[in-house]
Amino acid sequence: MLAVSLLIIVLLFIRVSGGFLITVDAHETSCFFDHAQEHDKITISFEVMEGGFKDIGVHITAPNDDRLHHSDKESLGSYTFTAIRDGDYTLCFDNEISTLTPKVVVFQFHVARPLHYYANPNERHDDVLEHAGVQSMINELGAKFGTVKQEQEYMHYRYNGHKAVSESAQFRFVLWSIFTPSLIVIMTIVEVYYLKRFFEVKRVV
């Protein structure tokens, strides 16, 4: 019962906590944004799962296009920072350097309000949570849930990939197992027929 209650609290009070699996095509840039208030804690983590050398350009910007992070090639990373002002914070994955290969990326974009927001009723305008320490534990639990979810999505994606490779290899093995004996039988029949014709004595009437 306690676990169910904690889960409901997390779902109700964690502002943003989600993992996403996307495909960024060659010569394409995909951007995502979320609104944050000043002093909010923003956590961004990502990993390139598939495609080429498993690297991609990563750009994080604050409102007014202030650059927070810029990298042309990264395979995975995790960044946490405090919002410097109210507004939309943007995360972009840039695959412009790739000529043909799309990139599969798993990422998480998490925004959590500071502790004093929940401790001060005048700021939060509600009466749901009375103790700031509880909110701190909820934020920590929500972050761990997000990490577990991302790991599960990663393992599920890897499982599907390995399963597809295994099934493809098995199918080719079965085809080759059928083709090889069939080829030997056909070659044997042809050789027997050829030798029979070669040694056949033709009678002249």
TrEMBL record:
Keyword line: Developmental protein, Membrane, Signal, Transmembrane, Transmembrane helix
What topology in the membrane does the UniProt record assign? Single-pass membrane protein; Single-pass type I membrane protein
Q: Which chain regions cross the lipid bilayer?
A: 173-195
Entry's localization field: Endomembrane system; Membrane
Pinpoint the GOLD domain residues: 29-111
Q: Which residues form the signal peptide?
A: 1-19
Gene Ontology, cellular component aspect: endomembrane system; membrane
Pfam families associated with the record: EMP24_GP25L
PROSITE patterns from the UniProt entry = GOLD
Please classify the protein's predominant subcellular localization into one broad category: membrane
InterPro entries (alphabetical): Emp24-like, GOLD_dom, GOLD_dom_sf
Family classification:
Belongs to the EMP24/GP25L family.
Record protein name field? GOLD domain-containing protein
Q: Which organism is it from?
A: Drosophila willistoni (Fruit fly)
**Originating gene:** Dwil\GK27785
